[in-house]
Design a protein that fits this description.
By secondary structure, the chain is an alpha/beta fold. The protein has a domain of 175 residues: Rossmann fold, CATH 3.40.50. 31% of the residues lie in helices and 24% in strands. It has 9 helices and 10 strands. Strand 7, helix 6 and strand 8 form a beta-alpha-beta unit. It is globular. 36% of the residues are buried. It binds adenosine-5'-triphosphate and magnesium ion.
């Protein structure tokens, strides 16, 4: 494994409750990649991210993170989950949510000055510093997503995994959110799961399609085979929304 491979997955099989969810997944993500993963509901996208984080135990296969095991190196990964549940009646503040991302790094009972500095830096990065003392439950969906990105970034990860981060936010917020990701992608590796195929094709550097098996070619081509493979991928969006450079011309779809 060379130093530039930050995620390497070989022959990965995962089943949940006895049902195969991921089959023979092979994927190498290089430092600085911005990988978009598309695929139908239930295709296994969240399960793949959770496997990379070590939250799901594979049936077989190997995953390495920055050349080491998941157990050893999962702390190099920041994660924005698909569903983050906050009890609205529990008044935890934005700043404390972000600080929670430092828990794995904290030594002793208290946060250090560095923990607080990092928290401030990350809130600034996502432009949420002014809301730092607000209860998280009072934020809009879009604001909350930004806080979750700050929480994912606060431990200085080299990889950021995001699972449908813009599913519940409006188009204006989506645009600024993707601009944030584009900025972040200059200094880190990003894996973004999204159904927003227009955004994916605009911002990412490589695209994969997951429907139990993974179609991936380490470039930005979204091939007909990938769409057919993940046949539930939103083909009408691909036809209308995707920039021409991503698709070759083929029957039935404007290229
Ligand atoms: N804890 C679980 N136990 C049993 N089956 C599960 C569990 N979690 C997920 N599954 C199943 O595994 C399959 C893949 O789920 P997963 O959440 O990874 O899909 P996804 O691609 O993220 O879907 P979506 O686009 O809806 O988020 C689905 O069929 C789902 O029902
Ligand atoms: Mg999912």
């Amino acid at each position: 494994m060379t130093a530039e491979e930050v995620i390497r997955i070989k022959n990965l099989y995962v089943s949940l409750a006895g049902t195969p969810v991921l089959e023979d997944i092979n994927l190498t993500v290089y430092q600085g990649d911005f990988l978009g993963i598309i695929g139908p509901n239930g295709g296994g996208k969240s399960t793949l991210l959770r496997s990379i984080l070590g939250l799901v135990k594979p049936d077989k296969g190997e995953i390495s993170i920055a050349g080491g095991s998941v157990e050893k190196n999962h702390t190099l990964i920041g994660y924005v989950p698909q569903y983050a549940v906050f009890d609205r009646s529990f008044p935890i503040k934005v700043r404390d949510v972000v600080l929670m991302g430092r828990l794995a790094k904290r030594r002793g009972r208290f946060y250090s000055r560095q923990d607080y500095e990092q928290m401030e830096r990350c809130l600034e990065l996502v432009e949420m510093q002014e809301l730092r003392n607000r209860p998280i439950g009072d934020l809009s969906g879009g604001e909350r997503q930004r806080v979750l990105v700050a929480r994912a970034l606060v431990a200085d990860p080299i990889i950021l995994l995001l699972d449908e981060p813009t599913a519940s936010v409006d188009s204006h917020f989506q645009a600024t959110f993707y601009e944030l990701l584009e900025r972040l992608s200059k200094t880190m590796t990003i894996v973004l799961v999204s159904h927003d195929i227009t955004a994916i094709s605009t911002y990412v550097s490589t695209i994969a399609c997951l429907n139990r098996t993974l179609h991936y070619q380490h470039n930005k081509e979204l091939t007909v085979e990938m769409i057919e493979h993940g046949y539930n991928c939103p083909v009408e969006l691909i036809a209308h929304g995707i920039p021409h450079r991503v698709l070759h011309a083929h029957d039935g779809v404007v290229g």
